């Protein structure tokens, strides 16, 4: 897998679009980098930029962005709600795929060294790139902010990791490091009180608050036997939070960094803030995502809120995202467009879903055309997707059937399985055609010289192997759907029993169709041991699929005649 890292620099300018544009132009000037998102904030006077690419290109783009920001932003006149210490306040590198955190940290150190030496800018390392445990935390490094760093940088313990130990009045200093994916997330309150917002923030953030006598904000600090302040931890792990007032929105917010959304997901943070706000007579009116978010975080949120309602979570990906947006009020302050805020959607190529994005008529017309693809493999995959869809429909109808309220969780689990299988089969519909196109591309390679012949043969064989493996995935996935279908035939809503029968017919046809494609493509592959082993497995699955189909149709027929 090609190594890909994400970079999310925060620049201390959120109002002048001309400056922001010049910084992003510098990023986009580097080949191999893709700019995903630009999120300026007027009140914070800060812009969060997100881009991805191979590590070397990302480091080059980050360097140019830091250089340009230093040229254009004057920190001596900067004002904003968000803590900051430099024109490029913080620049984290985040592993996305094909690269470890340790490797990403080395790229961050390389970038920091280059910025410090070539731009003569004070640079601090943080998180995974910082070997000194006392200097890993961003908030600890940034304490004192821009105004306090003129004195802080003179202290021996705060000597920069790279660059001069002199504070640059115009550019400030910057922090560069490597970290896990961080979700920047704000929850909106129906109050203008920063004091009350901070009370809620202290309740939920992992660091909590110091324990006081009487009033939790103004009372006397309680100390232990060693004279150290007693701390009361907050309720949410891996969460940093503060309260602030946003003049632009005329409301206070709880501003949170979810430093590990697998530990505390966005929906849990939202619900906990709602709970703590309610205890103080304050209402949560919505929330705001800053930057981007992984798709899984949105899907988990959608499922969470459906389950709270005792509704089936086995709905489409699109519906889960919609439920998440609606439940957390992510569109209160402006439109929330999933295609612009979810990382996987931004990275998705249109060619990866060419068939899946067609109308039924267009798909049929494309199949009926004189082009060899899409062909039987894609049709087998899509037929399997239809079978899984029908089984999922039966599960969802059963989950919400009147009088079956105590069984909603059982059917919801089966609906989720069906959705997963459906989504995979839809992806395979396109992947089968892509595999065929790889063969055609390899066949068109030159073969005039001996070296060209070798390269062409190798490419053709690799593409042919893929064209065997993709229908094998179709066969396996469609076969897996038969378990869902059989369960729905046995236990599902009796009014939908015929739908389970049609689903079984689709699944069996998908298995058999995929196996035909495996067999014909296998005739052109040279590794006979690989071919024989996979075809044996395929034949075994095909036979089991036929047996299951027969059993399911008998259940269906018996129930219809009963």
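^ Assign residues to that structure.
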């Amino acid at each position: 897998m090609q190594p890909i890292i994400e970079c999310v620099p925060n620049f201390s300018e959120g109002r002048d679009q001309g400056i922001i544009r010049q910084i992003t132009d510098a990023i986009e000037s580097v080949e191999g980098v893709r700019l995903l998102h630009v999120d300026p904030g007027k009140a914070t006077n800060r812009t969060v930029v997100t881009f991805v690419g191979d590590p070397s290109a990302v480091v080059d783009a980050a360097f140019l962005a830091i250089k340009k920001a230093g040229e254009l932003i004057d920190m001596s006149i900067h004002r904003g709600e968000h803590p900051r210490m430099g024109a490029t306040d913080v620049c984290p590198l985040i592993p996305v795929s094909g690269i470890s955190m340790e490797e990403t940290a080395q790229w961050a150190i390389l970038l920091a060294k280059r910025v410090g030496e070539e731009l003569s800018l004070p640079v601090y390392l943080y998180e995974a790139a910082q070997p000194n445990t006392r200097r890993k935390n961003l908030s600890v490094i940034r304490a004192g902010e821009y105004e306090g760093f003129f004195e802080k940088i003179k202290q021996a313990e705060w000597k920069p990791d790279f660059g001069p130990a002199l504070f640059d009045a115009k550019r400030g200093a910057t922090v560069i490091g490597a970290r896990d994916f961080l979700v920047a997330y704000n929850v909106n309150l129906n109050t203008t009180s920063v004091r009350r917002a901070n009370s809620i923030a202290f309740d939920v953030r992992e660091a909590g608050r110091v324990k006081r006598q009487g009033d939790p904000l103004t009372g006397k600090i309680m100390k232990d036997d060693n004279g150290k302040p007693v701390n009361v931890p907050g309720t949410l792990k891996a969460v940093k939070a503060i309260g602030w007032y946003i003049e632009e929105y005329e409301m206070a917010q709880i501003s949170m960094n979810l430093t590990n959304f697998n530990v505390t997901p966005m929906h849990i943070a939202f619900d906990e803030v709602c709970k703590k706000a309610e205890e103080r007579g304050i209402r949560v009116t919505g929330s705001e995502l800053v930057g981007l978010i992984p798709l899984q975080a949105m899907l988990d949120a959608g499922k969470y809120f459906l389950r709270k309602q005792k509704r089936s979570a086995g709905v489409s990906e699109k519906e889960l995202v919609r439920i998440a947006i609606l439940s957390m009020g992510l569109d209160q302050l402006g439109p929330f467009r999933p295609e612009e805020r979810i990382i996987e959607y931004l990275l998705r190529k249109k060619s990866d879903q060419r068939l899946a994005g067609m109308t039924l008529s267009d798909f049929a017309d494309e199949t009926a055309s004189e082009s060899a693809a899409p062909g039987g493999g894609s049709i087998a995959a899509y037929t399997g997707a239809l079978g899984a869809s029908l089984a999922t429909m039966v599960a969802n109808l059963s989950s919400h059937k009147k009088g079956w309220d105590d069984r909603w969780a059982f059917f919801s689990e089966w609906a989720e399985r069906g959705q997963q299988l459906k989504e995979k089969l839809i992806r395979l519909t396109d992947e089968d055609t892509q595999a065929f196109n790889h063969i055609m591309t390899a066949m068109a390679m030159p073969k005039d010289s001996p070296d060209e012949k070798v390269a062409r043969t190798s490419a053709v064989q690799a593409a042919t192997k893929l064209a065997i493996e993709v229908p094998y995935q179709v066969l396996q996935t469609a076969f897996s759907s038969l378990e869902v279908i059989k369960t729905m035939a046995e236990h599902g809503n009796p009014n939908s029993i015929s739908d389970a029968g049609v689903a079984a017919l689709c699944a069996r046809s998908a298995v058999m169709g995929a196996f035909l494609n495996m067999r014909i493509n296998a005739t052109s592959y040279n590794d006979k041991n690989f071919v024989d082993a996979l075809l044996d497995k395929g034949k075994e699955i095909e036979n089991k699929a036929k047996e299951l189909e027969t059993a399911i149709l008998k259940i269906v027929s018996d129930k219809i005649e009963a």
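The longest strand covers residues 88-97.
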